[in-house]
Amino acid sequence: MRAGEAGGVAARTVRTARLDLVPLDVAHAEEMAGVLDDPALHTFIGGAPLSPAELRERYARLAAGSPDPATVWANWVVRLRAENRLTGTVQATVTEGGRVAEVAWVIGTAWQGRGIAREAAEGLLALLAEHGTRTIVAHVHPSHTASEAVATASGLTPTAHLKDGERRWERHV
């Protein structure tokens, strides 16, 4: 992925069998505040649910992009087409001229256990690989078995490296 293409990745909608990964917009904050409003959801990712106003501020910062021109922040909301409803988010921080991406996924509690995180992560990883990303990284808490299952299904493998209590998972394309 050339430097100019990385920003294009962030602006592209990704369609999978059941989902649309839609580029994050401030307008998503109200609905997403409800999706992310379960304190249990934050057990492994930290923090606490944000209010719609706080989420609007956060989404405005994310949508503005990274202050580092060598880093692209790519963020999507996950829409389950059958319910016409947002269910979570996926994100990629793309560096090294597009060759490396750190990814993450969060699916609201009400939609967990339905393969949505796996499908969204696989859609995101396919997009990144299509645009030339060669190393995909995720950090997963060692006790978060559901996220470990998503990482495994997406072709990532655990490493021995721990960062802030989370294990580094990698996939080399």
Helix-strand string? HEEHHEEEHEHEE
DSSP helical segment count: 5
CATH class: Alpha Beta
Strand order of the largest sheet: 1-2-3-4-5-6-8-7
Indicate the radius of gyration in whole angstroms. 15 Å
Instruction: Give a short account of the largest sheet.
Output: 8 strands, mixed
Structural class based on helices, strands and sheet pairing: alpha+beta
Tell me, rounded to a whole number, the average pLDDT: 94
Q: What's the CATH topology name?
A: Aminopeptidase
The protein's oligomeric status is single chain
Task: Give the low-confidence spans.
Answer: 1-5
Shape: globular
**Amount of helix:** 25-40%
Fraction of residues in β-strands: 25-35%
C-alpha termini separation: 13 Å
Domain unit count: 1
CATH 4th-level superfamily? Gcn5-related N-acetyltransferase (GNAT)
CATH architectural group: 3-Layer(aba) Sandwich
Say how many strands there are: 8
What this model shows, in words?
This protein has helices at residues 3-10, 29-35, 52-64, 116-130, 145-153; strands at 14-15, 19-23, 72-80, 85-95, 100-107, 135-140, 157-163, 166-172. It is 30% helix and 32% strand. The protein has an eight-stranded mixed β-sheet with strand order 1-2-3-4-5-6-8-7, sandwiched between helices. It has one domain (3-172): 3-Layer(aba) Sandwich (Aminopeptidase). The model is unreliable at 1-5 (pLDDT under 50). It has five helices and eight strands; from the N terminus they run αββααβββαβαββ. With 173 residues, the protein is an alpha+beta fold. It starts with a helix and ends with a strand.
